[in-house]
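Protein modeling request. Please complete all fields; requests missing the sequence field cannot be processed.
Requester role: graduate student
Desired output: 3D structure, token encoding
Chains: 1
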Amino acid sequence: MLAHGSHPVGTSTGVHAAGAAGFEQGGGIIVLQVRVTDRFGEEAGAAAKDEVWGVRQFRRKSRRCGYSDFDILCGEDRVRENCRRFGVLLATLLLAVPACWGMWSSRVYLTAAAPAQTQAETTAQLHEKKFLPGFAEDAWETASLDSKTELAKQLAAYELAMLWVPDGTEVTVQPLDEDRLGYYSAASRQIVLSRSVLESGTAQETMDTIAHEAFHVQQTYVVENIDWDDAATQAAYYDQARRWLRNDQNGYVSGDEDILSYYFQPVEIDARAYAAEETERLQGLIDKELQKET
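Delivered output (294 residues):
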């Protein structure tokens, strides 16, 4: 039992006997009296004093800069919050990169199948819109059928370029049933427009029909060129394309078979939505072109 010179709890155990005072007997217990020095305890105490002094100096400088202890604590919280946000961002990137790689490797992008020359022509078409004023209602009413046919072909080429569909789709004008504005034949890769619509219909009606059928061309191209065996195609990114695929697998319903089923099948819903939005955009471009001429 160490009776004299005992260290408080928590002090270092690095001790040595500087000199024995001798043995004493007391109550049958032998007591060893030693003088103990603690080199490590002295060093720890000095380090603690230095740390306290450093904190005081930092606080003095902070106060001279106008910062309080509360501001310092808030700054530490902000640092921790920024570290947390960085961790979340890093985790998001680590998850997003494989998903993006899967989408790229599946070759869903429509430009993959187009040759270099076609891409150059497509880029030119995207910026070439000089034909659009021909779809102004006043000009359209007085145009000949040949002029309207040429304008329709130019607009169809422009729309297919906007949708990144490779060249190869033919546009023709043929007599069709009165209630049929046009259609797209995937077998012959042909957009067919109603002759009567071009002759007596409005420019807006023709633009809507061309945009509608051009979107059908894109739908067919997407369904045929996606690698559906790739696991990446199960991602939400492909939801719309999967609807088109199922529509094709279940069988396209024509208006002659069932008008309601035709109207509400996915490929027709999406084509109508695109045509309505695109026709409105084209009308805005036409108005701008007409303003330039005045």
